[in-house]
């Protein structure tokens, strides 16, 4: 059972396992894996070569590469970031079978720092799971792939080890050509494959193509082809009981002696000796990976040491105490508040008209208010006694200090300044106990960018603007509207999070 199936959760095309590894037996995936050592060190065996990865090192395991992990004498925390190639290949041609090599002499290289920063951002977003974090994670993964394509698909073979080749960095024509060549070789290595055939495909002379491959990889065409065949044979050696003659034929070698010769060249031993040595070290039902998942606190601490500035961007957000609104339907539904909500002092001022748009929509429904606070209101259209079939929730992100300022400002320029400069994050969790059934939820959301566009549009009405500028302003000021269906057995929870001043109106109705 060499192949390990990656389970992608939460509708995300990525999977992250951050753990302290004792031993991870030999296995492979169909997808790409980025290994990032956050603390300590770990031994990575990748095909025929063994690496000791230390803190800060990043290693790219391309799809279907055989690999295993083993701890060193020191403890470790390793981030294993896996990408669904079936998903991302829709955006990038030839992402499968690509070589990405991060082995660089200078481990403080700027391109490596970019990779570390992106991986840290992804990890913090997953830990925090803020509103819309899935989109941020996918966006950061696209940026990570772009970085790999830009800086890490240039390699050369030195002393039997693939190393990143900086001299060809930025040569997209060469990178594209090499990617097409290796992709074609991986797809066709099982049959007789000639340099002439690939030269015809690339519209190059045999001499020039041979020179390109040698210059770019440090290997001749025939050596590169033999390497691919030997590499692919490893799965057959450890994953099947096939004789080496059958394996040699299946991987494209014209004779078993050539297979043995090239296998020994790369792996340093006879194929049968290799099988005997490692057959008991592959992942299976009996031999499982041994690791301990790292806690959020351990991950945050490791990231803080590794990537300066990233943890600080999220630290305050992680410490913010969420606003939890508990509603017991059996009790709160019976009590309708008679006094105006606290936020009415802010929202009914003409200067705050733009900010108050969701509030006005909420109040126009004329529902009974069940509970309210400085920056939230919950109401229902239902009459007590009777079944509660709907809830309306309005939440705003502004703190007590911003609230005081919003009660005092005199013009829209002041409002614009407050919205532009307010950067605090807030999380609301509304928990409704006693609500069961199927519900439709509609969210009407105004984020800081929408508010800034609306306020700027109103403050600049005297300035003559082009049709294009007016369209841009209108589009950027429109609220987000989303719908969804939820099933609740007794408790229905609604969560929302803001970064900067914003508002969300949430309408819940029984289906």
From TrEMBL:
Ranges where the HTH araC/xylS-type domain occurs: 179-277
SUPFAM superfamilies named in the record: Homeodomain-like (SSF46689), Regulatory protein AraC (SSF51215)
Lineage: superkingdom: Bacteria
GO molecular function, one term: DNA-binding transcription factor activity
The entry's keywords: DNA-binding, Transcription, Transcription regulation
Organism of this sequence: Lentihominibacter hominis
PANTHER family with a match to the protein in the record: ARAC-FAMILY TRANSCRIPTIONAL REGULATOR
Protein name in the entry: Helix-turn-helix domain-containing protein
Pfam families referenced in this protein's UniProt entry, alphabetically: AraC_binding, HTH_18
């Amino acid at each position: 059972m060499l192949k390990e199936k990656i389970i992608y959760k939460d509708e995300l095309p990525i999977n992250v396992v951050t753990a302290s590894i004792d031993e991870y037996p030999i296995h492979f995936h169909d997808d790409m894996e980025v290994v990032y050592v956050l603390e300590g060190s770990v031994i990575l065996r990748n095909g025929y070569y063994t690496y000791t990865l230390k803190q800060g090192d990043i290693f790219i395991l391309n799809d279907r590469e055989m690999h295993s992990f083993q701890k060193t004498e020191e403890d470790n925390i390793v981030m294993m970031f896996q990408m669904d190639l079936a998903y991302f290949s829709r955006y990038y041609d030839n992402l499968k079978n690509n070589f990405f090599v991060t082995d660089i002499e200078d481990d403080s290289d700027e391109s490596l720092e970019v990779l570390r920063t992106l991986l840290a951002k992804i990890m913090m977003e997953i830990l925090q799971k803020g509103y819309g974090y899935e989109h941020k994670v996918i966006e950061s993964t696209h940026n990570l792939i772009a970085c790999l394509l830009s800086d890490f698909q240039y390699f050369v073979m030195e002393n039997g080890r693939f190393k990143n080749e900086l001299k060809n960095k930025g040569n997209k024509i060469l990178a594209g050509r090499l990617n097409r060549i290796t992709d074609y070789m991986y797809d066709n290595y099982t049959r007789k494959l000639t340099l002439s055939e690939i030269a015809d495909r690339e519209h190059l002379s045999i001499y020039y193509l041979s020179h390109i491959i040698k210059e770019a990889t440090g290997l001749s065409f025939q050596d590169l082809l033999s390497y691919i065949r030997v590499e692919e044979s490893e799965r057959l050696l450890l994953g099947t009981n096939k004789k080496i003659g059958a394996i040699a034929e299946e991987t494209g070698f014209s004779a078993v002696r050539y297979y043995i010769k090239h296998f020994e060249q790369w792996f340093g031993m006879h194929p049968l000796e290799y099988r005997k040595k490692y057959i008991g070290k592959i992942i299976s039902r009996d031999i499982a990976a041994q690791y301990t998942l790292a806690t959020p606190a351990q991950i945050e601490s490791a990231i803080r040491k590794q990537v300066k500035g990233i943890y600080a961007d999220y630290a305050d957000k992680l410490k913010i105490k969420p606003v939890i609104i508990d509603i017991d339907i059996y009790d709160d539904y019976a009590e309708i508040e008679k006094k105006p909500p606290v936020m009415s002092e802010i929202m009914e001022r003409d200067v705050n008209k733009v900010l108050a748009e969701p509030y006005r929509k909420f109040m126009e429904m004329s529902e009974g208010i069940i509970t309210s606070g400085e920056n939230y209101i919950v109401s229902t259209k239902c009459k007590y006694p009777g079944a509660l079939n709907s809830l309306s929730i309005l939440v705003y992100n502004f703190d007590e200090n911003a609230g005081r300022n919003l009660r005092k400002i005199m013009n829209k320029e002041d409002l614009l300044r407050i919205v532009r400069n307010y950067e605090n994050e807030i999380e609301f969790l509304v928990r409704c106990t006693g609500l069961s059934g199927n519900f439709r939820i509609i969210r009407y959301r105004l984020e800081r960018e929408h508010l800034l566009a609306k306020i700027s549009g109103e403050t600049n009405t005297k300035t003559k603007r082009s049709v294009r500028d007016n369209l841009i302003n209108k589009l950027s000021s429109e609220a987000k509207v989303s719908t969804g269906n939820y099933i609740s057995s007794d408790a229905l929870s609604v969560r929302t999070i803001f970064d900067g001043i914003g508002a969300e109106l949430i309408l819940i109705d029984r289906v």
